[in-house]
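Page 47, continued from p. 46.
Same chain as before, 423 aa.
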Amino acid sequence: MKKERKFSLGRLFHNDRFVLIFSVFAAIILWFVMSITNTEERPRTIHDVPITIPLSADAEEQGYRVFSQSDTTARVMVTGNSLIVNQLEPEDLVVRAQLPTITRPGDFTFNLVAEPQNPNSSYEIVSVDPGSVIVYIDRYKEATFEIENNIKYTRVDDRYYVGTPQLSVTNVKISGPETEINKVAKISVESEIQETLTQTYRFTTQLVMWDSQGDVITSDLIEMSVEEGKVDVTVPVWEKQELPVEVNFVNKPSDLQMGGLVTVDHETIEVGVPPNQTGGLTAISLSPIDFSNVSPSNNVFTLDIDLPQEYQNLNNITSVNVQLDLSDFGTKTINIPAENILVKNVASGKFAQVTTQNLTVTVVAPTDMLEEITASHIHGEIDMTGQESLVGSAEMPVKISIQSGYQAWAYGTYRANVNIQTS
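Result:
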């Protein structure tokens, strides 16, 4: 029967591999213990400590503020108990400028001092790097400028019209040091388009600041109200097209021939048609002329030119004069009796009676036909649509018509009294 071998710690130290591993492990433990118990004073540099620039209350009351500084962080060397120093962070320290009295704007060089955030800290400040900082101090100011538009284009196809370049914003506000803002005399967009323009052209460009001497101002201290100091530019382009002016009428006698009677002082107008919309508009249609307003003494009408919003009036003609040649026409007044006036669309269960006994109508017709026209050729019509609830007497508009074949019409507007009763 075999005898069991007992474990022996001493026997392990006769094993070379065990001794090697044990030695390394023991050395690591010893180094760690020594490092945490070593309180020898050692220097250490703390990086990225923020630099503060405190202004006096008097300077702030005068409106001064810091606009730039040569350095925003510093490196601070400290010495003290390594257990404390090794745990320091940038926020545990304060680096500030030693400021003199500020009486004017400008660049100032200030010495820097460092100190612990906690005045009871048990370490010392050895040095600060950099030892000084250059600071620009000034009052704050804002100013608003209208943007001058200096967009130029050199080549345009004769078939097209190029309009005034449009900016995404027309005014810009700048802000920053008063001294810098006061140098700005104007702000503009500057660009020259080399392409031949045949369609609307869009791009983004930088705003340019100018002084009173015509020199460009570049300053990192001036801020603009537009993002990155850029604006969008749209150069509108239209295709040229000559369109006829179309005269329209309402209440015109059906047998009246207008040929030779109508003249327009502008028979055609050049318009700018948006690209890809050619053929959409074939004529400029004027508001209709109502023949009830036409007579030999009232035969000239001024009518506005209305174009769709996307079209451009290249001739800048905003209205035209339309004249009717009525030199061969005359007028005549005729009284028509109540029985010549028809009332239509009377509500169910009601009846209507025209109580105006005679209606005096002014008739316009060729002079050689006037004598032939009598009251029997003239009829009136009253439309009661929308008056279904009316009971009693009311004055209503009368539409006058003249028997065809006479090329005649009634001049003016007419009304007659109507009595509505229930059946």
